[in-house]
Amino acid sequence: MMYGTTLSAESMKVIAESIGVGSLPDDAAKELAEDVSIKIKRIVQDAAKFMHHSKREKLIMSDIDHALKVRNIEPQYGFTSNDFIPFRFASGGGRELHFIEEKEMDLTEIVQGNVAKIPLDITLRTHWLAVDGIQPTIPENPPPLSKDHQALDSVNPVVKLEQGVTKDTAGKPATGKIHKLKNVETVHVKQLATHELSVEQQLYYKEITEACVGSDEPRRGEALQSLSSDPGLHEMLPRMCTFIAEGVKVNVVQNNLALLIYLMRMVKAM
To answer: What whole-number distance in Å separates Cα of residue 91 and Cα of residue 73?
Structure first.
């Protein structure tokens, strides 16, 4: 008989001794070995079916548990490994044994080793964005700006785009030109303004923005109608979005509800 096809009678005696049965007769051990071997083979075959249906090539403990449940046998508890457990084979002195190799660990190295730092817990804290319309000067809030500077940003936000842009003798922006560095490297600086507006477009932008936030209601209606129906406004759309964003930010702080309504009308028209 080939090794591994059935359990031996000696194995049954060892198992009997582990549960308190000291003297198991040879005939009983032989009968038990044959019966247990047949049942184990059937369970392994059923577990292999679960493994194949799960499109896996390794048998895991959940397959054994499912096979036991199919045969109305209570599954084994305490075995939750999802990985394959390798058994090592050893023989000597007329005995053959399969065992799980356990790695020896030096406790001195573990005690003297560097302990990993405990991660900090996530904490949340609140702060005042504004108190009675006044922004506190705390690190969490943006730096305060003067009302004149805020008004300039809300009326003409293009000034922010033009800051830091150098111009050549002809008056044109020179940020896209090649600058030579000391180590003979060259870089291309991307312009903040993607498109250059013509004089007519700049005049149109100025008139539209002034009309939309002005006090002349008929002129405002014409400006909104122009924003909603006139073609060719795609080059001015980034500037319009910047104008609205800066205007909302400034007027929210200043609690100016009328200008906020005018800006929302611009958004709806576009």
So the answer is: 33
Q: Indicate whether 180 pLDDT > 70.
A: no
- 72: left (phi > 0), else alpha (psi -120 to 50), else beta? left
Residue with tokens 């660990």: 105
List Cβ<8 Å contacts ≥24 apart for 100-106. Answer: none
pLDDT tens-place string over residues 23-62: 888 888 888 888 988 988 999 999 999 999 999 888 888 8
CA gyration radius, the chain: 41
DSSP 22-88: ----HHHHHHHHHHHHHHHHHHHHHHHHHHHHTT-SS--HHHHHHHHHHTT-PPPSS----S--PEE
Buried b (16+ CB within 10 A) or exposed e, 89-122: eeeeeeeeeeeeeeeeeeeeeeeeeeeeeeeeee
CB 62 within 8 A of CB 51: no
Contacts of 32 (CB under 8 A, 6+ apart): 12
Between β-strands 87-92 and 186-188, what pairing exists: parallel, antiparallel or unpaired? unpaired
For residues 71 and 43, the answer to whether their CB atoms sit within 8 Å is yes
- Give the chain's mean pLDDT: 77
> Quick one: pLDDT at residue 179?
47
Q: What is the pTM of this model?
A: 0.32
Alpha carbon distance 85, 97 (integer Å): 16
